[in-house]
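Per your request, structure below.
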């Protein structure tokens, strides 16, 4: 079976209204090219690294205007639309970085809260403390779309191979990696990590990214990428500008890769040092 996928690369603004106006034409473009599964990046609904400005503007998922607008758009276009993540308020008042899989009728099929918080001090002097703003999730999530089982992950998760192994063992053959990757780490590690996760699990990896320099001053790497189960790059945007990447996935290739290199089956339990 072949699945035509579309990755949307954005430069999300710092307000919900502007973010929706920015992403809708790109989703329409991907659907216009025949994509039936469309993935947007991390932080699709709003991006602002100033937590004092950001937190008061976050809403519950059900009330988020970008999520609501994209649910209506998915129903209009009749496509699966994976909102790579929406920054939202939880019922307990804390914030979450949440992926939202929308059905072709506009319903919500699954959600996933980012497991790993990006708390780092980079050699460039740039710092990040996601845990100061967001409450991490506590479980991995798979979801079924037409003919494929997805493994849902977000950005920094890609550095934790155990998550992808668990998703693959649960039957996922297509891994989503929406991201807002920093430029220094993106240049050094983006593609090699995506290809490694694909090779290790014999899975397709779909990485839709934020790109360029944003209103809040952050810089993101862009270069949205689709990797096949053998580690081959099927498609890539070689820039940071907003755009769309569409490709056809032969879903049988995942089974072939796993049969050729049965690493999932060959792994053994062991006692640590």
């Amino acid at each position: 079976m072949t699945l035509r996928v579309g990755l949307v690369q954005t430069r999300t603004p710092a307000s919900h209204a502007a973010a929706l106006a920015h992403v809708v034409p790109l989703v329409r473009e991907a659907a216009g090219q025949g994509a039936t599964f469309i993935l947007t990046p991390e932080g699709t609904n709003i991006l602002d690294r100033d937590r004092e400005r950001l937190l008061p503007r976050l809403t519950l998922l059900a009330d988020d205007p970008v999520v609501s607008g994209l649910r209506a758009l998915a129903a209009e276009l009749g496509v699966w639309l994976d909102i790579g993540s929406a920054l939202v308020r939880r019922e307990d008042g804390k914030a979450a970085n949440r992926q939202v899989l929308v059905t072709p009728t506009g319903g919500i099929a699954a959600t996933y809260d980012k497991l790993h918080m990006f708390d780092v001090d980079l050699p460039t002097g740039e710092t990040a403390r996601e845990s100061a703003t967001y409450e991490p999730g506590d479980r991995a999530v798979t979801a079924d779309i037409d003919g494929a089982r997805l493994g849902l992950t977000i950005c920094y998760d890609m550095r934790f191979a155990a998550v992808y192994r668990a998703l693959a063992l649960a039957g996922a053959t297509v891994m989503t990696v929406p991201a807002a990757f920093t430029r220094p780490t993106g240049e050094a590690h983006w593609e090699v990590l995506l290809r490694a996760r694909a090779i290790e699990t014999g899975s397709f990896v779909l990485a839709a990214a934020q790109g360029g320099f944003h209103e809040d001053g952050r810089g993101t790497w862009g270069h949205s990428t689709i990797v096949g189960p053998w580690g081959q790059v099927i498609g890539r945007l070689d820039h940071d500008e907003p755009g769309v990447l569409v490709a056809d996935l032969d879903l049988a290739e995942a089974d072939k890769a796993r049969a050729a290199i049965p690493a999932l089956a060959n792994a053994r339990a062991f006692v640590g040092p």
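Residues 84 and 253 are 24 Å apart (CA to CA).

Regards,
D.
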